[in-house]
Structure formats: C-alpha cells, structure tokens
Design brief:
Rossmann fold; 5-stranded parallel beta sheet; globular
Amino acid sequence: MESIYIIGSMKNPEVQRLSVKLRKLGFDVFDDWISPGPETDDEWQKYEKTRGRSYKEALNGWHAKDVFEFDKRHLDLADIAVLLLPAGKSGHMEIGYMVGKGKKAYILFDKEPDRYDIMYRFATDVFFNEEELIEELTSESSSI
C-alpha cells in the first residue's frame, strides 16, 4: 500500500478520524503532525511574541525550523497527499508542494464552497464525498 500524508487543520477532529479509517484499509498514513494539539500554533505565536520576536524572526527560530523539517521530511516520504478541508494557509502550501513534486494530491471538501476557486484544478482530483475519495485511493493502490 502507498503512504498517505493527511493535510488539514490542527483544529479539525476529522483528520484523525479519516486517518484511522485509512489505516484500517491498510494504508500507511502520516498524521503525527496533529499530536501537539489544536492550540499549538496559537501557543507558538504567543511564545514568540513574549520573546519580542517578529513573525519573520519566529520563522527562522529553532522551533519553526524543526517543525518545518519534520513535516517536509514526511511530505517527501509520502506517495499521496490528501488535503482535508477546512484547512488554512499551511495546508494549502503543503498540497501545492506535493503537486509541485509530481505526487498525487487529492482534496476532500467538507461542503460545496461559497466561493469557487479555479486553482483547485492543480490537484489530482477533488472530492465532496469521503467514500468516493476512499474508492479512488483503493483503486489507485490496487493498480500498482
């Protein structure tokens, strides 16, 4: 089975639920980035501001470098990425990175968007139904 990097918001409990479901189907799923909890980005920002550091300085600090390298290493190891919406800027950067690397990159919408965006065409495919995504992943995996 292929390895899948699940991309999403740290505040979205659906990330872990989908990851568990995919693991039960035999996929090697990476979602360890969610383990620090839903408030980790807020706490990091508060910490950096307490230190008197700007956002640019914070991005160049040890914490940001380590977390970035951790995530990037696992993105590089993954065969497939799934962006689970809603997600923020980081999630969209990560899926774009995977597209740029020539890897399969799927987007699972949580609902029909209020505003359409053409650039989601960069993704390998988009889904509005989890079962259709799973069917695609399963058929993709069995064709290898």
